[in-house]
């Protein structure tokens, strides 16, 4: 049923109610009993209530959909060529508990807390711009002078909040949520350091380098240098995070 037909029905019912009201008032003039007066009051109340409901329903049906305006401006700040290879991927899930207790007027305790489930995908690999090697064309051997430690090249996180409790004078702010996300992400990175992800990345890179050079008839002289730093994990900005 369309809104136009519904409004026509509402108007018809209103007119019909008005007609019955006129007839009832005419009959009431022939009687002065208290029951008739009470019935009239109830009828008037019902008519007013029905009219109000019909008016609100009519307004709801004629309500225009909201107008949404969106705009976006993308600015490319910088672009450069890189040579980075992902050699391992890890899926992590962190359960992070946050609780903060303050005292109002140094007397009344006020607490806010949240349980956050962090799901993260961490990609570990190598930045070949930091690689140093020597090539001996005569013997067709490649010697790795300095092979970098594995790095976290990308961290994708998703946060789901559960059991958030806050009080009127101690609410979560944007700074609180940003701190929660930063701290929970740090915990995920710490878990990645202690996992076997750096070792997996190092072994994969060792296999890749050996097979790649072998396909070109070159021999990798010191493949062990790739796995020497397998217990270290560096962030993508190059800052080391120490041994796992």
Automatic annotation (TrEMBL):
TM spans (from-to):
9-28, 34-57
The cross-references to InterPro entries, in alphabetical order and at most eight, read:
DUF4230 (IPR025324)
Q: Which UniProt keywords apply?
A: Membrane, Transmembrane, Transmembrane helix
Whether Membrane counts among this entry's keywords is: yes
Does Transmembrane show up as a keyword for this record?
yes
* Domain of life where this protein originates: Bacteria
UniProt protein name: DUF4230 domain-containing protein
Q: Supply the source organism for this entry.
A: Marnyiella aurantia
């Amino acid at each position: 049923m369309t809104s136009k037909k519904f409004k026509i029905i509402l108007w018809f019912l209103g007119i019909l109610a008005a007609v019955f009201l006129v007839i009832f008032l005419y009959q009431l003039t022939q009687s002065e009993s208290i029951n008739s007066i009470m019935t009239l009051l109830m009828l008037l109340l019902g008519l007013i209530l029905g009219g109000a409901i019909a008016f609100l329903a009519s307004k709801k049906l004629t309500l225009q959909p909201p107008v949404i305006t969106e705009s976006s401006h993308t600015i490319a700040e910088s672009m450069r060529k890189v040579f980075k290879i992902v050699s391992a991927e890890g899926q992590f899930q962190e359960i992070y508990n946050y609780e903060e207790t303050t005292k109002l007027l140094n007397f009344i305790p006020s607490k806010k807390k949240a349980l956050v489930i962090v799901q993260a995908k961490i990609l570990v690999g190598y930045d070949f711009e930091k690689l140093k090697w020597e090539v001996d064309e005569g013997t067709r051997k490649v010697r790795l002078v300095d092979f970098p430690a594995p790095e976290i090249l990308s961290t994708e996180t998703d946060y789901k909040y559960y059991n958030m409790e806050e009080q009127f004078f101690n609410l979560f702010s944007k700074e609180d949520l940003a701190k929660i996300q930063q701290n929970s992400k740090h915990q995920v990175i710490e878990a990645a350091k202690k996992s076997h992800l750096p070792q997996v990345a190092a072994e994969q890179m060792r296999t890749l380098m050996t097979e790649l050079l072998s396909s070109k008839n070159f021999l990798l002289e010191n493949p062990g240098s790739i796995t020497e730093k397998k217990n270290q994990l560096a962030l993508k900005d190059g800052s080391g995070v120490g041994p796992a």
